[in-house]
Amino acid sequence: MEPLLVRACRRETTERTPVWFMRQAGRSLREYRELRKRHGLFDIVAQPELCAEVTLQPVRRHDVDAAVMFTDIMFPVLGMGVDVELVEGVGPVISQPVRSAADVERLVVPEPEESVPTILEAVRLVRAALRDDQAVIGFCGGPFTVAGYLVEGKPSREFATVKAMMYREPATWHALMDKLADTFAAYVVAKARVGADVIQVFDSWVGALSPTDYEEFVAPYSARILSAPDAPTIHFGTGTATLLSAMAEAGGDVIGLDWRIPLDRGWAEVGEEHGVQGNLDPAVLLGPWERVESETRAILARAGGRPGHVFNLGHGVPPETDPAVLGRLTELVHEISVEARV
Asked: Which pTM value belongs to this model?
């Protein structure tokens, strides 16, 4: 049996709606927080058995339909020759931001088997540990989001330095995106080759762009990554209501929707030839169960049981979330979607 998520990504009729949660591995789980007292994030990813264990923790806890590999979107960038520090409460911080053509020239495009062997081994371990109907999700960062960290040097909301490079030094920008696309395409191909059933591209902050800037400066590179692996793909971003049709054109069997657009309207934007993923507001998990249930029922009603819906949040699990809520939510989606198919 192929994993439920794989069949949903292909818009095949499934026995229930698949469920998984972005950032389900870690953050809200007590067992993960205990591990983090002794290990940094990159330290965990450097140990395949430990990485696999953290990846599998939420699958055992919540009985979700997929395990998303525990790592960070900046992990493959280390192999490009970039010094990245993950600062608690801040995010990725780059000691020497990429600001010039010379900085881009110094970046290398590594071979995944040499630069990220531990995550590839962790994928193999996770695939061997799951049931046949559960999927392994491998992922990479979207080219704009990763470039944003590299150029700004730290998380940003305005991306003023990034946009200045786009407009003033387009050749430098395109050279950077070219190297990121080559690196990430090879990375996800390698993950699919060793056992990842589905690939997701996390272009979390691409919603900061106008549609014309997205199409000129980002879409060709996202398309290259999304077309590379021999596996179904999910194309995700936040704040992307004005970009959805362009993102769908760039690629992705499934397009991620955040909570700012009703699911049925978002599906109309991306077209029926694509599936959609989402789109419960993560903050709803912090409210009473009655609110969680009513919002979930409304999302499933908007999906209408159409093939190609993957239930998820509109972004990641908040750290304050009670893990029991995620398990209860998974059961609810399975129960409602099974009943709807009878």
From this structure: 0.97
Q: Which of these is catalytic: 36, 193, 306, 328?
A: 36
187 tagged catalytic? no
Name the pLDDT band for 342 (thresholds 50, 70, 90). low
Identify whether 258 is a catalytic site residue: no
- To 10 degrees, what angle do helices 170-194 and 160-168 make? 110
Token output for 324: 């029991």
Contact 86, 36 (CB under 8 A): no
Structural domain range at position 208: 4-341
Give yes or no for residue 27 having a pLDDT over 80.
Answer: no
**Which of 266, 340, 261, 328 has the alpha carbon at shortest distance from 291?**
328
Is 149 among the catalytic positions? yes
The yes-or-no verdict on residue 28 having pLDDT over 90 is no
Single out the catalytic residue among 23, 61, 127, 224: 23
Active-site option among 32, 65, 72, 253: 72
Q: How confident is the model at residue 56 (pLDDT cuts 50, 70, 90)?
A: very high
Look up 131 and say whether it is catalytic.
no
- The H or E element containing residue 34 is helix 30-36
Q: Exposure of 97 by Cβ count < 10 A (0-12 exposed, 13-18 middle, 19+ buried)?
A: middle
Give the count of domains, the chain: 1
193 is catalytic: no
Which of 149, 187, 214, 221 is the catalytic position?
149
Q: For residue 25, what is the domain's CATH number?
A: 3.20.20.210
* Separation of alpha carbons 226 and 136, rounded Å: 17
What pLDDT shows up at residue 20? 98
Q: What are phi and psi of 329, to 5 degrees?
A: -65, -40
What would the pLDDT profile of 276-330 be if each residue is shown by its tens digit? 999 999 999 999 999 999 999 999 999 999 999 999 999 999 999 999 999 999 9
Closest CA to 301 of 248, 249, 262: 262
The whole-angstrom separation of Cα 289 and Cα 297 is 12
Q: Are 84 and 78 in contact (CB under 8 A)?
A: yes
Q: What is the pLDDT of residues 305-314, one digit of tens each?
A: 999 999 999 9
